[in-house]
Amino acid sequence: MTRFHFRSTLIPLAGAVLIGTAGVAAADNDDLADYMDMFEPLPAMPPLPADNTMTPEKIELGKMLFFEPRISASGTISCATCHNPALGWADRIDRSVGHDGQVGLRNTPTVLNSGFLEAQFWDGREPDLEGQALGPIEADDEMAMNLDDAIEQLNEFEEYNEHFRAAFPESDGEITGENMAQAMAAFQRTLNTPNSPFDRFLRGDRQAMSDDQVEGMKLFVDSGCVACHNGPALTDSRFYEFDLPGPTDEGRFVVTGDEADRNHFRTPTLRNVAVTYPYFHNGSISDLGEAINLMGEQMLGTEFEDDELEKLVDFMHALTGEMPQITPPALP
Amino acid sequence: MTRFHFRSTLIPLAGAVLIGTAGVAAADNDDLADYMDMFEPLPAMPPLPADNTMTPEKIELGKMLFFEPRISASGTISCATCHNPALGWADRIDRSVGHDGQVGLRNTPTVLNSGFLEAQFWDGREPDLEGQALGPIEADDEMAMNLDDAIEQLNEFEEYNEHFRAAFPESDGEITGENMAQAMAAFQRTLNTPNSPFDRFLRGDRQAMSDDQVEGMKLFVDSGCVACHNGPALTDSRFYEFDLPGPTDEGRFVVTGDEADRNHFRTPTLRNVAVTYPYFHNGSISDLGEAINLMGEQMLGTEFEDDELEKLVDFMHALTGEMPQITPPALP
To answer: Looking at the predicted structure, is the pLDDT value of residue A10 above 50?
Structure first.
């Protein structure tokens, strides 16, 4: 590795406090606290919006909608089809498969901890989960259903009207796109993965990570990964360009029309990265070590030594938290 | 209704004891016990095969395989896709949708209580769950994956070998079609729905069913439904012919080549019938009352009065048991 001297550059980081030290060299355990200050443990809940109160009724309704395939054109695809609870709430294939077996443009991002992201979708075209929720229902290569038809489907079941009434008491049970989105967003904000070895380590348990994982954490800081992968979800929610094998698309340019955004994609969360392969917006890399190597070369101009790479991979495994234990709802 | 005088005909019924009474007329509560003797509550477990011991390790592995989409050609279809825990462990569409959006010939039967059936598939081509388990993996219009390829997929994950080793200690972790089938069958035998209102009623709780449901139960016996819908799962697992709207196929004839079996299909379980619509082998009828009417007309030569139909529908709702509370596994 070409040491990046990151900790001495004092790049301002959102949500991270840099306690700078001039000399870098091989950091030892005496300054472990400095490294730990670069991070923050995952809070129990993401930030909550002022206008979408999170009641148990709304969360329950959101869970029903998340597992509901009848709001897709074929009646067989739900949010949970691609955001599969058995597969890290993603799908573990390169690019998503949707309506009529169509292969989408991009890899399915996990919904785990998605409430912590400041930009939704790989191109950041929505700022929050409320804005995100209805997109896949209407996308031609995902669930392929017009929103009005989806609402008509739900209205077939009086049980749904009752749930909407309980979740939105002022609506009198009316089903709208807006309250569907609010309910699904409320449910998704419960899908967090606390208490990873990394979180326990940050909270003081020095035995929660192995020595190699601690070394990996230091490398993660020293080599500069933390410049973009920071904050509670280890992402800055900003957009970057790099080369990948396989098909790609114009990325953030599609949203902004700004040439500077062409082929730029959002920094993904590294929370649970070991169980949310394959990687990058086109899912072209399945191996975690290979993904880290590619990032090192292209984003940091660094070639990691084999033993460094191993420690970084070990550290990534420490980011796997406790999975939400969800029992699928009994739909009407 | 043309009263069928079923209870006086003393048709021998497998698993049901007939305490015959000569006079029929309007039965009153005094002979309720006679009606109750026609039925049996759902046992906690179905019959277990002598050669597939049911260990927690095997059940856990079977659950993993049941939720595993990577043993399908697209990597996106698992057993749980059509046998969806959120939809009564079936799919609530007319006919199943499989690989590349292909629509299959038949309606997806629920796996709930399927260990109690003496014939698997609508055409009874397999006698038990071990025989059934691999069929949908290899079917071109379902998961569309060659068994050898499925095994190769599983062998990609050392974690699967460990689970096979734990479930089949003598196999040394080798993955074969036979042990896959045994594990999935063991898991499916846990998917039972005890303690329906009907079961509680049969066990002595006279308040478990409403008066209309009790009347419906009597009608179910008196009109002859119980001739085919008997035993713990309320099916004789035999094969019958009748006319339905919509597409059909040759049914049991495909299995036996016997002309007498042409267009014959297995009697379905009535357990959880209210939550496992649509009905019949082609899923052409969604309304439970309509399904009962059709059966009355074609199988019993009976036209039910409106109030009789309502009571029969009410009784069917009493057959909904407690759904298994399954948390999807965390797959490797």
So the answer is: no
ipTM score: 0.87
Name the helix (H) or strand (E) containing B182.
helix B177-188
Among chain A residues, the shortest Cα distance to B66 is held by: A86
Of A101, A323, A329, the CB nearest to B86: A329
Q: Between B67, B91, B323, which is nearest A76 by CB? A: B91
**Is residue A41 less than 8 Å (CB to CB) from chain B?**
no
| A310 carries an active-site annotation | no
* Distance set, CA A69 to CA A76, A326, B280 (Å): 5, 17, 21
pLDDT of residue B2: 47
The domain defined by B56-188 carries CATH number 3.40.50.300: no
Alpha helices per DSSP H over A156-278: 158-167, 177-188, 197-202, 211-222, 253-256
Q: Which residues of A touch B328 (CB under 8 A)?
A: 84-86, 326, 328
Taking residue A5's Cβ as centre, other Cβ atoms within 10 Å add up to: 11
Angle, vertex CA A158, rays to CA A172 and CA B90, nearest 5: 140
CA distance B232 to A320: 45
**Fold of the B6-38+193-317 domain:** Cytochrome Bc1 Complex; Chain D, domain 2 (1.10.760)
Interface contact A54, partner B, CB < 8 A: no
Q: For the segment B262-272, what is each residue's pLDDT rounded down to a tens digit?
A: 999 999 999 99
B97 in contact with A, Cβ within 8 Å: yes
Tell me what the mean pLDDT of segment A251-267 comes to.
97
CB B298 within 8 A of CB B249: no
How many Å apart are CA A236 and CA A147, to the nearest integer?
Answer: 32
Cβ-Cβ contacts under 8 Å between A and B: the total is 77
CA distance B165 to B173: 4
Q: Read off the pLDDT of residues A235-248 as tens digits, 9 standing for 90 and up.
A: 999 999 999 999 99
pLDDT in tens, A85-95: 999 999 999 99
Chain B contact for A81, CB < 8 A? yes
Which tens digits make up the pLDDT trace of A176-201?
A: 999 999 999 999 999 999 999 999 99
Where does chain B hold its CATH 1.10.760.10 domain(s)?
Answer: 6-38+193-317, 56-188
Contacts of B85 in chain A (CB under 8 A): 328
Tell me if chain B has a CB within 8 Å of the CB of A169: no
B76 to chain A, any CB pair closer than 8 A? The answer is yes
- Closest-CA residue to A196 (of A34, A326, A88, A42): A42
Question: Mutate which of A61, A76, A82, A327 to test chain B, going by most B C-beta atoms within 10 A?
Answer: A76
| Banded pLDDT at B18 (limits 50, 70, 90) | very low
b/e B255-265 (16+ beta carbons within 10 angstroms → b):
bbeeeebebbb
Residue of A nearest to B65 (CA): A86
pTM comes to 0.90
Half-sphere exposure of A306 (CA within 13 A, CB side): 0
Residues facing A103 on adjacent strands: A97
Taking only Cα atoms into account, the Rg of chain B, rounded to an integer number of angstroms, comes to: 21
Mutate which: B87, B102, B196, vs A, most A CBs within 10 A: B87
